[in-house]
Design goal:
This protein is α+β, with helices and mostly antiparallel strands and about 400 residues long. It is built from 13 helices and 22 strands. The chain has a seven-stranded mixed β-sheet. Helix 1 packs parallel to helix 13. The structure holds uridine-5'-diphosphate. Uridine-5'-diphosphate (UDP) binds next to helix 6 and helix 7.
Length: about 400
């Protein structure tokens, strides 16, 4: 039987593993933690589903990704809505026409909305950093307001940098909407697994050809030397899919790649609902960026009790749990050096947010994993499992 070694039992590793297992690969997964799912892991506490590593919302434009995950769990439709505390009011984020109406008087709000529509007649949304470059004075004024009140403080907390110092793609994740659409995401498929992500991923991993070794630090078993991989001292010629931090494979020889991390604080309350929506952002006060009320992400939440999570961003050096790659020219250059160093290792495949150093959403992670798995299967069928 064909073999594949996968490092990491997160969403990337398990997706690729499942597809390969269905195609007659014997899949061995090495997982450092004592549980499945990577950072999408969740667990029940008094019937409230706690997302251990922060709330995860599934959304995608890709029907093939939605179809793929639907094989492994029941889902229910869920559209995420977020409020941000701006000048003492809770207004919708992404900042949209409703947010304008709530923060400006009628006359001013009308001017601002007209200016936006005139400046961008064809667009549904525009990133704040682009709005700031507008030649229209009214648009500029609004952009400055949004920049200062929605993005500046939040981004300073989240990344330790101002939005101007960040890669523009990061602010563009939450653009200003030129309509009353107050959904956080506009993707066609917005669904949540009925019983949680752990149940989804566990079902995905249930296949006779998959075995997972928990509390197994791959780096104490795997050695990459020149163009070869050794597993427990023996050369491993079959594919290895690696989903951990790329620099750890090469002993951090070019230095650290930076990541941002989070510390989560839970608050238990004996009330039915603690805040008006699942997520409230606090761009301009407190050390945390946002609070989320987990049970509101469940289809049938329990009554009379709830759990809130507060997110405190920190550098990864504080927790040693990487959540976000810090995309920038400089960091991409460093990443490329590591990638080039590993290029000659023809049976090594890098996959996922950490190994690819990309701020992927869950759906893209799954998409990439599906592609990689089908590529390996294709190569095998063509008698070429060495080429990348
Ligand atoms: N952001 C912000 N204010 C907000 C929401 C988002 O400044 O109210 C910025 C911030 O820099 C954040 C980025 O937009 O890191 C992306 O936000 P998103 O909600 O996509 O972050 P995630 O849920 O992935 O942590």
């Amino acid at each position: 039987m064909k073999q594949v070694l996968i490092v990491g039992a997160g969403i990337s590793g398990i997706t690729a593993g499942r597809i390969l297992a269905e195609n007659n690969y014997q899949v061995t997964i090495l997982e450092k933690r004592d549980h499945i799912g990577g950072n999408v892991y969740d667990y029940y506490e008094d019937n409230i589903l706690i997302h251990k590593y922060g709330p995860h919302l599934f959304h995608t434009r890709l029907p093939q990704v939605a179809e793929f995950i639907k094989q492994f769990s029941e889902f229910f439709p869920y559209e995420h809505r977020v409020l941000g505390e701006i000048q003492g009011k809770l207004v919708p984020i992404p900042f949209n026409f409703k947010s304008i109406d709530m923060l400006f008087n009628i006359e001013e709000a009308t001017h601002l909305k007209q200016a936006l529509k005139q400046a961008y007649p064809e667009k549904e949304s525009v990133p704040v950093m682009e709005l700031r470059k507008s030649k229209d004075k009214k648009v500029q004024e609004l952009a400055e307001f949004v920049y200062q009140n929605v993005f500046y403080g939040y981004t300073k907390k989240q990344w330790g940098k101002s939005p101007e110092e960040m890669d523009s793609s990061v602010m563009a994740r939450v653009p200003v909407r030129l309509s009353y659409d107050d959904r956080y995401f506009t993707d066609e498929f917005q669904i949540m697994p009925l019983l949680g992500y752990t149940e989804l991923i566990t079902t995905m991993a249930e296949h006779k050809n998959i075995s997972i070794r928990y509390q197994c630090d791959a780096l104490s078993h795997l050695v990459v030397e020149k163009e070869k991989i050794y597993f427990d001292g023996e050369e491993w010629k079959e594919p290895v899919i690696y989903t951990g931090c790329i620099e750890e494979l090469s002993g951090r020889c070019f230095g650290n790649l930076p990541y941002r991390s989070l510390i989560f604080e839970l608050e238990h309350k004996n009330v039915t609902q603690a805040q008006p929506v699942v997520q409230v952002n606090y761009p301009n006060q407190y050390l945390y960026t946002r609070t989320s009320e987990f049970k509101l992400l469940q289809k049938e939440p329990v009554k009379d009790k709830t759990v809130l999570v507060y997110e405190y961003p920190v550098p990864c050096t504080e927790t040693r749990i990487p959540y976000y790659p810090v995309e920038s020219e400089e960091n991409r250059t460093l990443y490329k050096k590591y990638k080039e160093l590993l290029e000659p290792v023809k049976n090594l495949y890098l996959l996922g947010r950490l190994a690819e150093y990309q701020y992927y959403n869950m759906d893209i992670t799954i998409y990439q994993a599906m592609n990689l798995a089908y590529k390996l299967i294709g190569e095998e069928k063509n008698g070429d499992n060495k080429g990348k």
